[in-house]
Automatic annotation (TrEMBL):
The keyword DNA-binding applies. The lineage of its organism: Eukaryota, Fungi, Fungi incertae sedis, Mucoromycota, Mortierellomycotina. One of its GO terms (molecular function) is DNA binding. Residues 122-145 are annotated as: Disordered. This is Cas12f1-like TNB domain-containing protein.
Length: 145
C-alpha cells in the first residue's frame, strides 16, 4: 500500500494569474485513488519554517535557501517542506496527530488545545488532546478519505 501526501496550500503567481495547483489536484487525486493509493491532504503550516533535523526554527539566507543556526544545516526551502510533510503524514498515520514540533503555539509558548483552560496548576499535566483544525489533515472535502 502506498500513501501520497498532498499540500493543501493555495498559490498565486506574481502576475495574479491562478496557478495550476488546483487543476493538478482535480486531475491527480481521482487518478491516484482509482489506482488504490491513499491520498492525504496536508496542512503546510510550519513545513518550511522548522528544521526537520533538530526541530528548531530556521532562518532564510537566500531566496529559497534556509539555514538552521542550531544544528548548522543548510537546506532548500522545498526540500525542507517536503521532509516535514512526510513526517506529518507518518505521524498522522501512527499517532493520529501532527508532530509536536510542527504544531503552532500561543503567545506564551503553550499548546492551548492540550491544556484544560479552566484549571491548569503548576503540578498538573496537560489534559487529553482534543481535536483541532491543525490536526485535521484532510480538511478539503475533495481530499477527504
Amino acid at each position: 500500500m502506498a500513501v501520497i501526501g498532498i499540500g493543501l496550500g493555495k498559490f498565486s503567481s506574481m502576475s495574479r494569474l491562478s496557478t495550476l495547483h488546483e487543476s493538478f489536484l482535480s486531475y491527480f487525486v481521482p487518478l491516484a485513488r482509482s489506482l488504490d493509493y491513499i491520498v492525504i491532504g496536508v496542512n503546510e503550516y510550519y513545513s518550511s519554517k522548522k528544521c526537520p533535523v533538530c526541530e528548531e526554527f530556521v532562518a532564510q539566507v537566500a531566496i529559497r535557501r534556509l539555514y538552521c543556526s542550531h544544528c548548522g544545516v543548510y537546506m532548500h526551502r522545498d526540500i525542507m517542506a517536503a521532509d516535514n510533510m512526510c513526517r506529518i503524514v507518518q505521524s498522522y498515520l501512527l499517532q493520529q496527530r501532527r508532530p509536536r514540533y510542527l504544531q503552532p503555539v500561543d503567545e506564551k509558548g503553550h499548546y492551548p488545545w492540550e491544556e484544560d483552560c479552566d484549571y491548569v496548576s503548576e503540578n498538573s499535566v496537560a489534559s487529553t488532546t482534543s481535536p483541532s483544525q491543525e490536526t485535521q489533515l484532510a480538511a478539503d472535502p475533495a481530499l477527504a478519505q
